[in-house]
Amino acid sequence: MKISHFIRRFIWIIITLKIIDIVVATIHQSKVYDQLTALCIAFTLLVIGYCILPKSDKHFIKTIKNNLSRHQTYTFKKTPVISNQMTYQNQAVDISRQQYQAQSTPYLNELSMLKRQLDEMNERIESQKAYRNQLSKQINELNIKYQQLNELTEQHDGLVEDIKRLQDQRNQLADAHVTDEYQSFMDYQSKQKLATIDNFDGYQFETFTCDLLKALGFSDIKRTQGSSDFGVDVYAKNGDTSYVFQCKLYASPVGIKAVQEANSGRSYYNCKKAVVITNSYFTPHAISASEKLDIDLWNRDKLASLIAEANV
Fold first, then answer.
1. Cα separations (Å) of 277 from 9, 184, 254, 255, 289?
2. Is residue 63 part of a domain?
3. Is residue 245 helix, strand or coil?
4. Residue 245: alpha-carbon gap to chain centroid
5. Residue 220: left if φ>0, alpha if ψ -120 to 50, beta else—which one?
6. According to a count of CB atoms within 10 Å of the terminal CB, is the N or C end of the chain lower?
7. Are 202 and 249 in contact (CB under 8 A)?
8. Are residues 267 and 244 in the same domain?
9. What is the DSSP track for 20-85?
10. pLDDT of 102
11. 266: domain range?
């Protein structure tokens, strides 16, 4: 037994004795006011005494009260103590429990079924939420792709307009190039340039060849130095194709020796193409050898057209 329970019960006994004393004293009082006052004090002490009782004692009192009034709301659950002085009939409680079980079983079954339905509904709700989140994610991705598509469409429209504008400019430039006046002017310019080239020395002609190749879009243009150039004067590249050039500034037609030197230079420099360029023309033997050796020949007419194309 807990000490606190013992103290509470001891105080409750003192309060009970005090209440009995007050009740006895009230019987001997003649005034009604004094009797009511004494009864109020006794009731107050009774309430205080009930409040300080341990929970088990309160439950015990309620059980006795319910048994006396035939109400089965509470069940006596005090620690069992063997007593020969008190007997307790539990037949009515057993009957009530059987009736309760018989009446509650259908409701319990229905409640269990409703609980299962609720669980299934919650699972469906969670599944729908997950599906909704997935759809929301896909919708966001589609919106992003749609925006990107709109941006690409705008860029495409802008590029189409730029292409049309450039095509118009190209057509205008092409029309200008094919006009007789422009062609006549370019032919005159080429002839004037060729007349100037005829007065060049070998070094000046090689320098002019480098400038012409640069204007035509060649890159990595270099002049070979010294007497051991193996018949090559200029090295250049056009894209991925490497070239060697043999420059011949002659007043008479260029012979087969220049073609052979260009072929040797191509092998030495390990290039794909070899070209002999001159301000004159080539002999038939040189032309025949170039076809067999796959050497390109740029004669005076070719040089004039390249000058007009490069506008140098």
1. 132, 24, 10, 12, 15
2. yes
3. strand
4. 56
5. left
6. N
7. yes
8. yes
9. HHHHHHHHH---HHHHHHHHHHHHHHHHHHHHHS-HHHHHHHHHHHHHHTT--SS---SPP---SS
10. 80
11. 193-310
Q: pLDDT band for 77, please (50, 70, 90 cuts).
A: low
**Parallel, antiparallel or unpaired: strands 273-278 and 241-248:** parallel
pLDDT of residue 177: 62
Same domain, 60 and 11: yes
Asked if residues 73 and 28 have their Cβ atoms less than 8 Å apart, the reply is: no
Among residues 134, 153, 178, the one where a domain terminates is: 178
Residue 282 has φ and ψ, to the nearest 5°, of -115, 150
Residue 85 is assigned to a structural domain of this protein: no
What is the distance between the alpha carbons of residues 18 and 124, in angstroms, rounded to a whole number? Answer: 68
The number of domains in the chain is 3
Q: With 0.70 as the threshold, say if the pTM is over it.
A: no
Answer whether residue 163 is part of any domain: yes
> How many distinct helices (H) and strands (E) make up the chain?
9, 5
Helix (H, G, I), strand (E, B) or coil at 234: strand
Tokens 């450039």 -> residue: 166
